[in-house]
Each structure stands twice: as structure tokens, then as C-alpha cells.
User: Fold these one by one.
Assistant:
Number 1:
Amino acid sequence: MADTNTAETSVHPSEAEGVAREPLVLNNRSMGWITNRICGIVENRQPLIWWVLFVPSVALFGCLLFTLVYLVSTGVGVWGNNQPVAWGWAIVNFVFWIGIGHAGTLISAILFLTRQKWRTSVNRASEAMTLFAVMCAGIFPGFHVGRFWMVWFLAPVPNANGIWQNFKSPLLWDVFAVSTYFTVSVIFWYIGLIPDLATLRDRAKKGLAKFLYGFFALGWRGGNRQWRHYEMAYLLLAALSTPLVLSVHSVVSFDFATSVVPGWHTTIFPPYFVAGAIFGGFAMVLTLMLPVRKLYGLEDLITAKHVDNMAKIILLTGTIVGYAYIMELFISYYGANKFEADAFHLRILSGPYTWAYYCMFFCNVIAPQVFWFKWCRANFWVVFIICNFVNAGMWFERFVIIPTSIARDFLPGQWGYYSPSWVEKLMFLGTFGMFMMLFLLFIRFLPVIAASEVKGVLPENDPHYPDWKKLREKRRSAA
Amino acid sequence: MAEFGSASELYHAAEKVRDAGFRRWDVHTPYPVHGIDHAMGLGKSWLSAVVLVGGICGSSLALFLQFFTQVSLYPTVVQDKPVNLFTIPAFFPVTFELTILLSAFAVVFGLFTFIMLPRWNHPLFNSPLFLKFSDDGFIMVIEARDPKFKKDKTKEFLGELGAGTVEEVAY
């Protein structure tokens, strides 16, 4: 600890001239203010808009339940997929939702390892988003197996003939990847929640709330003899989640890349899918967080700097995705594979789904380019609209990859056209209802920002910060 | 038990308590204070060792599960992949995932064992001053069980360190 003595006199790195950074929490807010503001969301009555969003979300969730019951009781024939397009909207939606989850883990794990302190105000909500998105994703392959009650065949248990699962199949890899991803994300989220649950416990006055927050806070006392193991646990989970999140979408892409279907059989898929997942996920984080920060008065915690950073990540990953699109086209032209060349010719020029390709290309590659301009990153309406373009574009990307490749297979005699039935459409809408419903309940019952982590990034809370007295006075007078 | 006004004061107080040779004491803060492990004389957390064991268990379990079922118990020849030791590339993804899964379980169970939670009831919770730790308080607690603890002297000592409030909590 050589810096212990020198830090008292020298200038703190965050304030040195020329490299001074914008503060992560604006307007000199104190720790007490942070606690009050974040816990207040849970303790006070919800604004009217919460109910305006919650009621339709529950209704849509009801639609999801109805379509699932209808599907199971009637049979998978109620979906529009058939030969040759056996993988329709169900798999498109699965990949779409699982991709959205990736931004949450990226923020919580990768940005933690790279010491990006701005992550603290957005990681909790993004991790929650991850969990809810993975739940929505899990519905689709589960019911896509046809006989939902046979879904236990996916678990590593031998069937009645003593035959085990085929561990050489990417589909089984997917089962392991997605279920591990969900479990580890729950663990990460819950470990992060414990200190904030303790805050809610200590503020709750009576009754069920005090009991439940107390129960889940596990008696957390915030002693440093706990914190030091806790910090190590958090670091380890971040280190485990980082390769995990990269592996999950890689494994999802193996479902396609290891097959021989032209348009799927490419080695660029794993990095391309991972970049796309982070891209789409960040768009969803911003779509959710921009209204939340406005509605609940969190502008001092989720600042313009945060939005700016996330917009830059969207720009970067969107450009990587654009590179992958163009590289796919180039390889199909440059490679000697006739079928591959034909698949892409059909995809962009003469096939039945070219409209989807251009929707995708516009939403994912062209639209985010406006984020090169600072003005666009600072105008939250622009950010919100572009993010929704990206949300739509990423869905189209999966649609372009999945049905268009199998609608034009090797034999022209097998060719077909796929369009979804009303059941698929309603189910997809229903998962949005479920996602929104869960997210609104999360806002209602749990701290939407990791208060304990935000307190840790206030400059005067670093014991080596030289001018903490002056800063504390400033905060007191601001309050 | 003593309350301090800031992280910096707590940090320097912790250094002095450490040098005074106390053993059973702790600081309770709303967030992990940077560098205070050093000020308290605590070393590295060895939770990582537990997790390493968890990870090794995970990969061995996965390799055993796959080789045993696919190669020795009931070899199924599909996708023209071999059913011998050379199947290993196809077994990588599941091995990786199970390694991560069991490591994550080791993190959770190791953590709860190390920090001795859940423990829902604790004498400190009876003090309203203590509960400030989850909001904005910097609390230092010296337990009466500490061999160096002497009721009045320790109280005085905490006052000298610059604590705002010093109070006793019945144990």
C-alpha cells in the first residue's frame, strides 16, 4: 500500500487535470439520498403509468398461457411450420430472447472485470432483464419438442430402452448451455441483491415486507469480514460468467453452424451471434431504462454519460454485425460452394424473403450509425427510437437466418414458403407481455439499482480520497 | 460499538485498532470500503480455492458422464462421429458448461459457509444505530469476547479514535 501516504497530498486520479471524468452520480447526492430514492420506488405507491403498463402486460401473459394450452391440447400442427421449414417463429423467438439476455451478463460480468464503474447504476436492472428474457426464451424450445410432457428427455437420464442422450449433438449442448446460463445468472443476481435486500429489511417497518426482505437478506450485517468474501465471490462469479455468456450464444449458433444447410453452415456464426446478442441486448436495456430513469427520477444515477456509453457499445457491436453480414456475402461469392452462393443470392436478390433481409440490414447496420454523432447519443428520443429499430432488426436477423435458409434447400422440389399462424403470433406477443409483467413486478418489489455498489463509486467513499471533507460538506449543503 | 463519520476516518481508526492487537472486531459499512482489508490486517479470501475444487469436480463429472454413457455404456453411432477417446471435441461444450455450473455452486455454498449466513438473528440488530450500516453509517464493533476488551478502556479508546457515537450493545 505505497499510495496510502502519498494519496493524502496528491490529486486523486479521477480529478487530475486533463483526465478528469464526469462524476457517476450527479448533483452531489449523498448516500442517504441514494438509499431513499432507490428504496422509495419500492416503498411508495407506483405511478399511474405502472398500472397502465402492467394491466395489458398481464392480459398478454394470459394470451401466452391460452396459446400454450391450445397448443398442447391440439398439437403442434397449430403452428405454421412444416416441411421444409421445420424451424419457424418458435426458434426465431428463442434465439431473439436469449440474445437479449446477453447484455445483462455483459454489463454485470465483463464490465465488472474491466473495472467500468459506470456499470453500477444499470447492472441490477439488466441482470433482471437477462433472467426474464431467458425465461421467455426457454418456453419456445420446450414446446417446440412437440410433446411437452416428454421434455424431460432433454435431461441426462436414459430412456426406457437404456439409450442415453446424444452428447455429440449441438441441441443437447444447447440444453446444458442455456440451463447453466440461467442458473448462474440467478445466482449472480441474487448474490448482488443481498446487501440491498438488507437495506430494505432495515427500512421496512412491519409485517410481511419486513419478514420477506429479512428472510432473503439472510441476516446480512455488512461487516468487512463478510464483505471481503462477498467481493471475492462477486469477482469469481464475474469471471465465470464472462466465458459463459460468450459460450451460450456460440453454442446456440452451433445449432445452425454444424448443420449442412446452405446459409447456416458458416464458421463466422459464433462471433457474429455473440456480437449480435450484445447489440440487441443493449438496445433492450436502453429501451427499458430510459423510461424507468425518467419515471422514477433516477436521472442523477443513470446519467447522460451512461446512455452515451451504451449507445457507443450499440454502435460498435452494430458495426461488427454489419461486418459479419457483408463478410457472409463475400464468402458466399468468393467460395466455390454453389449452394452457398445460391442461398445468399436468394436471400438478397430473388428469394421470397428479401424484404426481411433489407429490414434487417437497415435496422441493424444503417440505423445505429447515427450514434457517431454526439447530438444523437445525447438526445434520448433519438436513442429510444434507434434502440427500437435495433430490437426489431435483431428479430429480423434471426428470421432471415432461420426460415429463409431452409425454405430454399438443396432440392427445388422441396422448396416452400413459411408464414406463421395466429397461434405463433399471439405466443410471441404473449412473451412480451410476460417479459414486461416480470420487469414491472421487479421494479415494484426489488431495488432497481444496486444501491450498495453505487455508494461505493462516490469519490469520497474511497478512504484515500484527499478532499472528502470538502465534498461531504458540499453534499450536505446540496441536501 | 462506534459510529464514524466517513470512510476515511473509519479506515484510519481500523488501522489503530489493528495495531492495538484486537482480534474479535469488525467494521460494518454500506459498501465494501476499498483497501480496508489491509487496514484491518486481513489477507486474501481463499474462496477461490473452494471454487477451483468445484470447477474440477464439474469437469470430471461431465467427462465421466459423457464418456461413460457414449463410449462404454451404450455407444450410439450418429453423425459419423467416433465412439472412442477421439470423441472428445464433441464433448467440450458440455464439459465447459458443467465446469462453470459447479464452480458457481461452489461460489454460493462456499460464500455462505465463509460468512456464516444465513443467520437471521444477531444481537447487533437490536441497536438502531447499527442498522445505519445499510444506509450511510460507518460502524465499528469490538466484541466483548475479545481478550483485550476492557469495558471502559475500550470505550475510551474508540472515542479517541474519533468516533461520533459510542454505545454498548447487550450481547
Note: The domain at 21-155+170-463 of chain A is CATH 1.20.1630.10 (Formate dehydrogenase/DMSO reductase fold).
Number 2:
Amino acid sequence: MESNLKNENKIIIKPPRSSVGILGWVRENLFSSPFNTVLTLIIATILWFSIIPFLQWAFIDSCWLPDSNCRETNGACWSVISSNYKIILFGFYPQNILWRPITAIILLVSLLIISRNRNYWNKILGYSWIISLVIMGILLKGGIFGLEPVDIEKWGGIILTLLLSVFGLTAAYPLGILLALGRQSKMPVIKTFSVFYIELIRGVPLISLLFMSSVVFPLFLPEGVSINGILRAQVAIIIFTAAYIAEVVRGGLQGMNKGQFEAADSLGLNYSKTMRLIILPQALKIVIPPSVSVLISAFKDTSLVVIIGLYDLLKTTQSTLSEPKWMGFSAEAYIFIAIIYFVCCFFMSNYSRKLEKELDTGL
Amino acid sequence: MNKAKINNNSEDISFWYDPDKRSILYQIGSACLFAFVAWYLVSNTMANLERQSIATGFGFLNNEAAFEIGESLIEYSAADRYARALSVGFLNTLLVSFIGVILTVILGTFIGVARLSKNWLINKCAAIYIELFQDIPVLLQLFFWYAFFYEMLPSPRDALSPVKGLFLCNRGLIFGIPQSHPVYKYMAIAVIIAVIVIFFLKKWAKKRQDFTGKAFPVFFTSIFLLIGFPFICWLFGGTPTDMNIPVLKGFNFKGGLTISPEFAALLLGLVLYTAAFVAEVVRAGIQSVNRGQTEAAKAVGLKSGQVLNLIILPQALRVIIPPLTSQMLNLTKNSSLAVAIGYPDFVSVAGTAINQTGQAIEGVMLIMVVYLIFSLSTSAFMNWYNTKMALVER
């Protein structure tokens, strides 16, 4: 039977050339209908006439070396970066000991990369996070182990951006969980407080909180006590992020099956044990992807501290651009830091999408 | 409830282990803590204000503002009161948010649909756009566009003029507008009348279709009415064609309408940033409608326009509207970043007022109240919409 069939089908008809290979792909995906053909041609023309001049500007006519004379070329002046990258990236951090922030950042990035893989999530990783954060703090601040002390006021650039977002999220997370639990609580007073806090903070722009931290907060303190501007901004960011975390966590709590609570009750667990051992571990797992989104927006939002005059990545760039020598090269400098922000956010959002797929058990 | 009963019945449960009594204790405790913190902060603040001799209360709103505002929808001069300065800022915030929301929805819908296109090139362009604009802080984008308008565009003398009567320079976008004429007022009224007529026409058409099954081409009639009514007005009003064309005088243009670089940068930055998020919302909404719905509608014999209007959109909108409103709210809140590029929005004006009067608490409070009004009214709308659109489950 089989051999018969084989003989009969000896002449294998190949699919027409126009539907396979590159040609087929192009026909299928670019020119499938007259309308699509027109669209493709229009977009391709626009791209051609915008990308070629851009490449010319960015790579061919541009100057790259520090101290080259930019004003004479038509292209991009990347010298603004190569001459000032230390100031842009690290602000006023003493330039002879830049190895310290660099080491701290490498430590942070490698920990983040390790933490990407959920198989490594265990107690050891948790402890190493805590230890590393302490080490990073010591590296940046100095003052012990013979390290030259550096005033927090001098932390700038990417250090400040990372500090505000990493510490902001670490501190906001527990606060957010408490608020979410408060909002779900049956005690009216606590519930009212939580709802009021969450809705108030989510209703106002971050900038009003930053204004508050810079002009109102000093009035709250008793006479003679003053807190440094970076810490005040950090508090504002924590207060702000916590409200968003609370809503994310609430989503997770509401997603929990009622049976989980009842099972915990029937085992005789009290409230804190129910939450700590049964509910939160599951609820927090559900909300990892949206938490990463909150982290991304917190990371982007740290750029707002420019407005209250802190020297984060954006402000150091602007202070470079205000020097007469570099005036007029904003595009190059902004593109440079846009790339930094983009790379960080892109990896985070990619990770969040990957996690979403992993955690999606199809239920 | 059950727990309480059990506890009341067993007498050996001590006061501290009764969940009901405990919860009351917790609540009293947290209320006391809150009251204490509030009292501590307020007393510190009062002492500080007194020491620095800063006035309190909203009396400053009646004082002379003594600062100029670059752009204003209503008449304003430095001699006006703070209250008026703040309302100028408020209107500017409303203006940029209103135009921004409209443009964002249009652009976002386009990109969201493009993201679903079968055309590879368009699909990838939309994907790159979404990823690129979502992942760069909006403030950086605002600075970039502001620098673009300020540094890269030529001075008014060498202004670019792609179309006659339209100039693009570092003073902004300047274009000619029709010379003011009474006819335009009547044309505006004609548009309003057309809208009212269309509203009743739609009602009547639906009623007729319900009774007779005959469809009425509402869409084309509406377009015809919307253009026709004002056009008739214009014809009978003497067909004015005079234009107020801007002309270069000295260092700047006179006449025409000017869109300042601050406003343009703010609007462009906000729209491009938010549109990326709206595109994702729209894509998700369209994808949420099951493919079978389209197939079923086609099987019933609906035309492709009807499939979109009657089957896909009503279902997709239910998914799209809630996240869309929150994006609109985000745009409004992000418009507060105007302060960074010098557009006089509410936050920026309030910031100036804070600097001049030193009354930081009142200033920040005003900012918060204004934005809270925006968000509360949005969430009120959302609740109304959700109850209206909720699936009627039988």
C-alpha cells in the first residue's frame, strides 16, 4: 500500500515560487493587497529619507573625540559626551575615586542579572542583596575602612538616579503591602486611613509631592533639625510609589481564592500567620509583573527631581549643556541619556513580559 | 461572626485574645498615633511659620501678583491678583490637557491599529515606536523637544515656511488665521445646530430601523450637515476671504496666531509619550474581541463597516475605556511637568506664587486640590461608565 502511494506521488509539485522563500515572505507581509503596497511604499520612503540623513548626522559627519572642534562639522558632536561623561554620569562625585561608584553599580547590575532567574530566588540571594546594599552604601559614602568620606550632597548623576529608584522601591514595597492589607481590612478606621492615603497620593502628580518635600517638609521639622534634600526627595518618592504598589498588591490579594483564607482559618492560623504563610506568598507571586512596571515608572519618575534642583542624570547633563563651550548640543547629550534610560527600562519591561509568560499557568 | 460567637461562649478567653476587642484596640491605637503625628507636625509648622513670620491662610489670593505670565487665555497683567494668575495657570493646564487628550487618542488609536497590521513594515514601526517612547522618561522627552524648538529651528529672520502663511522658527509656529468677521460666529452656531440635528436624526433613524428594518445612512448625512450648515452661513454672510497673515517686523512676527515653543514642546512630548501607552491599550482591546465574533457577524451578512461599528467596537470599548481614562488622567498629571520647560501651567504659576509669598503649604495644597478634582471627577465618570457598560448577565 505504502509503496503504491509513493510511486503515485513521485512527481512532487513544488509550491509556486512566489509563495515561498524571500519573495513569498515579501509578497505575504509587505504587498499582500494594493492598499498594503501603497502603505509599504509610503513608509519605506519616509524611513529612507529620515534614516539616511540621521545616520549621516550621527555617524559619518560626526566627531567623537574629546576636545575636537564640533562647530565646524555638520554632524553630531559626540565630543560633548566624551569630554563630559564623568560629570554626566557621576555628578560632583570626587573624580579620583570614581572606582567606588563604578564598583557599586557593577555589583547592583550583576545582582539584578542573577535575580532575573527565578531558580536562584532563595534566602541566600535575599541575604546577599542586603549585604550588597550595605556594601554599596559603604562604597559610596566612605568614612570607614580607610575610604575617604563623600558627602551625600555630592552624589549625582546615575548614582542618584539608581539610589532614588532602588531604595525608593525597596522601602515602598513593605509600606505598599501594609497599605494594601489595610485597604482590605475589616477595621473601618484603618481601612479609611489606607483608602484615603492611596487615593490622595494617586490623585496628585509626583511633582506636587516633590514640591512638598522641598518647601513644605522643612516646616514640619522642629527648630534646628534639617534633613538633606536628597533624603527628602527620597521620602517623597517612597510615599508616592507606595500608593501605586498598594494598588498592585491589592490586585493580587483580590485575585486570591476565598478557599485559601478559609483553609488557613480552619488550620487555626491567626491573621498575621495567614497572611505571612498562606496569602502573601501567593498574592505577591501573581503581582511580580505589574510590580516591575511600577519599578520602571519609578525609575523614569526619578528624573523629576530635576525640578527641585537635585543633580540626577538629567540635571548633570543640563549643567554640562549650560557651559558656553557645549551650548547648542542638547540633542546629542539628550540622546545619550535617553539611550541609558531606554536600555534600563527595556531590560526591565522585557523581563516583566518574560515573567508574565512564565507565571501564566493558563488557569 | 462565627468567631465572635465562639469567643463569647467560652469564658476562659482573655480580653487580649478576643479578635473583636483587639481590632477596636488596634483602631484606637492607630487613630491615636495618627493624631499624635498630625499634632506634632502641625505644632512644629506653626512654630516655624511664626518664627519666619510667614502669613497663613488664603488671604494672599487677593494680593497683587506682580509677575507676568507668558501665555494666557484670559486677559492678565502683572497688576492682577494671585487668584487671577492662578486661574490663568488653571486654564492653561486645561487647554494643554484637552488638546493633548484629543491628539493622543487619535495618534494612539492609529499606532495601536498599526501594531495589529499584517503589513510587516508597519507592524514593526509601530512596535519600535511604542517601545521607544514608553521607555524614555517623559521629562527627558519634553527637554528634547524644547531644545529642538529652541536650538535647531532658525531665528524669525530665516524662518522656515513650508506653506505660504505658515512660519516655523525658534519663536514657535506662526500661521495665518482668517481675519475676524461676524460670519464666523454664525458659522460656529451653525455647527452646534448641525450637531443637535444629527442627534435627533440618529434617534429617528434608529427608531425607523427598529420598526421597518430600513437603515438610514446616518454617517454620510451627518458629515454633509456638519460641512453644509456652516458653508451655507459663509455663503450668505458675504464669503469673507481676508486672512490675517503674519509678517516679520523687527525681530519677531506680527499678526497671525503663534504657538509658543513651550506649548508646542509640552504638547508634542505629552502626546508622543502617552500615545505609546494608548496604543498598547487599543491593541489589547481589539485583541480581546474573539475572532469568532467577526466571523459570526460576517456570516450573518453584515458589511465590514457594520461589523466594526456594531460588533467589534462595542465589545472592544468596554475593555479599552477604563485604562484609556487612566492614561488621559496621566497625561493631565504629567502636564504639570510644564514647569520644567517654562510653560505657565497651574503648577508653574503656583510655584511662582509660593516663591513670592513663602506660603508653601497653601500653594502645594492648591496644586493637590486641583489635581484631585481632576482625578475624582474622572473616577466618578469611570464608575458611571462601568455601571452603564457592565455586561448584563442573565
Note: Chain A touches chain B through 53 residues (CB under 8 Å).
